[in-house]
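chain below, 162 aa
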Amino acid sequence: MTENSPKEYLDRLQCPFAAGECGRAGRDDLILLYEEFYPKAVTQGLPPAGDLDRMKWIDGLLASGWNFLARQDGKASGHSALLPDLQRGDAEYIIFVIQRCRNRGLGTVLTAIALETARARGLHTVWLTVESINFRAIRLYRRAGFQFCDEGERERTMSLRL
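prediction:
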């Protein structure tokens, strides 16, 4: 991670990690992260299970999104991205944290960085979809200020006005 000098943080176990914006230079880190990520293709087919599809997906995120990476113990441990629609002034938000680092605050930091970036770049709304049974993610999103905006059974949409 070389973009914009990532900041240092401590997770809930008081272990250090770095997080910040990630561009094309972070591609190899993202490939390794998503090779290790489990389970693949469970939520909305993401991350893609096939190696080639996964690399195309990563390249698409790097080309059209604003990406953020967390690294812990020398390895990529979390990734989030905003997929902006500048004409509408909004962005879709996605986030993935590797299993070994979940429930330690990395997702909270990645979300805060993404929302700060969205505000700084003039967006008005950030939205996401989440499985209705993904209570850990829903708790994270609610703490960040997201609110439900539909009543879906399997997946729900949440949004945040900035």
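Residues 40 and 90 are 27 Å apart (CA to CA). The chain has one domain: 7-161.
thats it, cya
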